[in-house]
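Hey, I'm writing a tutorial for new members on how sequence and structure tokens pair up, and I'd like a real worked example in the thread rather than a made-up one. If someone can provide the structure for the chain below, I'll link this post from the tutorial.
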Amino acid sequence: MGEQRQHYNEEFKRRTVKYIQEQTKSVVDIAEELNIPKGTLHKWLGQYRTFADEPLSNAQRVRELEQLLLVKEREIKAKDRQLSDVEEQLAIVKKAVHIFSKPPQN
């Protein structure tokens, strides 16, 4: 027949979520370790997650943020070059306007 569903109290759920947040293991690994479906753990995370319990960093997240930082730095450098080019063009246009706006000398 069907499997009997487990019922967990609030304290167990909160402790489990805190445990998940303190670990560097994936939710799938912890689900296998605790013999609780991963969907259930994700649901509990949504309900009981507190960011104060999050580890400051894990290696994967640091790598992701470093890559994002490199991409953003490249974008900023490209924008700086573009801005510099536009400023140079503007200076040329200002000089041209100044030259051509003088009344002709006879």
